[in-house]
Write a structure and sequence with these properties.
The chain has 5 helices and 10 strands; from the N terminus they run ααββββββββαββαα. It is of the alpha+beta class. The strands form 4 sheets. A 3-stranded antiparallel beta sheet has the order 1-8-3, with no helix packed on it. Strands 2-5-4 form a 3-stranded antiparallel beta sheet, with no helix packed on it. β9 and β10 form a beta hairpin.
Amino acid sequence: MSWTTKTTIKTLLGISDTSLDTVIELLIPQAEAMVKGYLQREVEQATYTEYYSGTGDQTLVLNQTPVQSVTSVHQDLNGFYGDGTDAFPVSSELVQGTDFVLRKDHATAAEISNSGILYRLGTVWTRPDRTQRGQLARAPGTGKGNIKVVYTAGWETVPADIQFATSRLITSMLESRSRAGRIQSESIEDYSYSLSGAEAETMLLDSVKGSLARYRKVVF
């Protein structure tokens, strides 16, 4: 489902005719893709099944946020991203509130998790040990996809400022049609439209970064 509409864009531009309808419809998914790229996250609510490698720490940061709920967490040293023999059996499932807990940003049970952090309780997110050649002591190894997490993340209703930023980005694209260097090619007749590369995208995004900054994923 799109975050903005042709009607919204035309209202922002102050136009009522249909001359730009085809271009607007073409630009909506492009603008949404640019916003997702800047935010470094998905936006719409969805359910994810992801595999992580244990690091020997008590914290595990999920890829998508905000996390609405965690369906299940399994830990299996022989899981290998789901490709292992009998990977992640029922016996490998962890219990929420006993084995792990999702960080709640304001410590309320109904609160979503903007951080997406899972804390392992009483121990760490396991990674295997390995024996180094020529040494008797075992050293920490690599988890290799030994943790499986099924969870729901994203917004059921895309925040208003992300919607508006996307609409503003589209109007900037349309306004840039008369500026040299912004558009590499455009054809209404065969419905093609392309920007002139990453530099042009950065220039266009500059106009909406202020509205989007607080939603951008922090990569550690």
